[in-house]
Design brief:
The complex is a heterodimer. Chain A is an all-alpha fold. Chain A has one domain (2-202). Chain A contains 9 helices and no strands. Chain A has helices at residues 2-25, 35-58, 67-95, 97-104, 111-131, 133-136, 140-164, 171-191, 194-202. In chain A, helix 3 packs across helix 4. Chain A is globular and about 50 Å long. By secondary structure, chain B is an alpha+beta fold. Chain B folds into 2 domains: 3-37; 67-163, Protocatechuate 3,4-Dioxygenase, subunit A, CATH 2.60.130.10. Helix content of chain B is 20%, strand content 25%. Chain B has helices spanning 3-6, 8-37; strands at 67-75, 86-91, 104-108, 114-119, 131-135, 143-145, 156-163. The N and C termini of chain B lie far apart (64 Å). Mean pLDDT of chain B is 86; it is low at 1-6 and 10-36. The chains are: A mainly alpha, B alpha+beta. At the A-B interface, helix 4 of A face loops of B. Chain A: The chain crosses the membrane at residues 36-61, 73-94, 114-133, 145-165, 171-190. Chain A: Keywords: Membrane, Transmembrane, Transmembrane helix. Chain A: Residues 44-156 form the Ferric oxidoreductase domain. Chain A: It is a multi-pass membrane protein.
Chain lengths: 203, 166
């Protein structure tokens, strides 16, 4: 029974990532894009996949990866997410500099750009804070609150960004992946009693 | 003599007449300045000038064609159609990126102020299937437009210019 559940959990997780990536890789739009543009788009999709993995790893939901091991991987995947975000923005910049400059300056005609840029800054801020956590000697409650606020912003920003884009991702697999991201994040925050830490901080 | 004002029905009728008069005056009061101002010039759209390459050549069509960019050009104020106005067009299509010179071309408006230029199918890029158009010839204020297609499968797109003389 336990083994069956583990296989099922990993299968759902793997499919939630593999199916949207496979659909995107078979998009007809790729035929009319340069390699750097294709790579930039793919980096964004893989980033969204990592955003799904992050709460699962942090809360130890993935069978075989309980909290201490999961947390260690969470840090590495967090670093990988930063790399993917930079590759995403950098690749788009090479493809069309004025569109990316407009996005970064929040003057783009497309609303999803602003959501994406907000998510980018939230991810970078969360990563910087995580790397300075020891040096800043943050109290566990303060750290959790700050990490939760930044990652919530990153999740919401990334999901809205992805949903609003008409790109290589398939509609159904994109919506399913985004729904899983929201559900996993919400459950992890609830289970990790982040709000309890916030309440303790207040008193 | 004053009985019509003292009955309830009379009061209502008087009120309705007064309200009607006020409405008529009010409406015309709003319309007059609007008519005096005339047709307002089209403002440039956000991101409209992205990947603009000035002086795109006037062409029969851009690339292999199959997609139509259409529109009108009128003068601000009186709304008169403008003939011989050079409109530059570019987009991410099945034949090239926005930055590729061969994705750019220009056409001239006809006597009725309309223009149409055949070009390759526009495909979604940077999250939306969209085209770019520019008026940048000097006699009127420069305008950059960035219309978005209702659906990526559309085979035409239109954009209208109202130009402000300089």
């Amino acid at each position: 029974m336990g083994r069956m559940r583990a296989v099922l959990a990993w299968s759902v997780f793997a499919a939630a990532i593999a199916v949207p990536v496979a659909v995107a890789l078979s998009s007809p739009l790729l035929a009319w894009r340069q390699p750097v543009y294709i790579a930039a788009g793919l980096a964004g999709i893989l980033g969204l996949a990592i955003i799904l993995a992050q709460p699962l790893l942090a809360a130890g939901y993935l069978p075989g990866l309980p909290t201490p091991r999961g947390r260690r991987i969470h840090r590495w995947t967090g670093a990988a997410l930063v790399g993917l975000v930079l590759a995403h923005v950098g690749g788009l910049w090479l493809t069309s500099p004025p569109d990316v400059i407009d996005a970064l300056l929040f003057r783009s005609p497309t609303p999803f750009s602003a959501w994406g840029v907000v998510a980018m800054w939230a991810i970078l801020a969360a990563a910087i804070l995580a790397s300075l956590r020891r040096r800043l000697r943050l109290r566990p409650g303060s750290w959790r609150l700050a990490h939760m606020l930044l990652t919530s912003l990153a999740v919401i920003g990334s999901v809205v960004h992805a949903i609003l884009i008409e790109g290589t991702m398939g509609t159904i697999s994109k919506w399913l992946l985004c729904a899983l991201v929201i559900a996993a994040t919400a459950k992890a925050f609830a289970d990790l009693r982040t709000w309890a830490a916030v309440k303790r901080l207040k008193t | 003599m004053t009985s019509i004002l003292t009955t309830r029905r009379g009061l209502l009728r008087t009120g309705a007449t007064l309200a009607g008069a006020a409405l008529a005056t009010g409406t015309s009061g709003l319309l007059v300045p609007a008519r005096a101002k005339g047709i307002a010039p089209t403002p440039s759209m956000r991101g409209g000038s992205n990947n603009y390459l000035p002086d795109a050549p006037i062409v029969e069509r851009i690339g292999g064609g199959g997609f139509w960019m259409t529109g009108t050009v009128r003068r601000a104020g009186d709304g008169a159609p403008l003939e011989g106005i050079r409109i530059q067009i570019w987009a991410h299509t099945t034949e090239g990126h926005e930055r590729d010179p061969h994705s750019h071309g220009a056409t001239l408006t006809r006597a009725d102020g309309t223009f149409r230029l055949e070009m390759p199918q526009i495909v979604p890029a940077f999250g939306q299937p969209h085209g770019h158009l520019a008026y940048d010839s000097g006699d009127f204020e420069t305008v950059f437009l960035r219309p978005v297609m209702g659906s990526a499968s559309d085979t035409s797109l239109s954009a209208d210019f109202v130009l402000q003389p300089v």
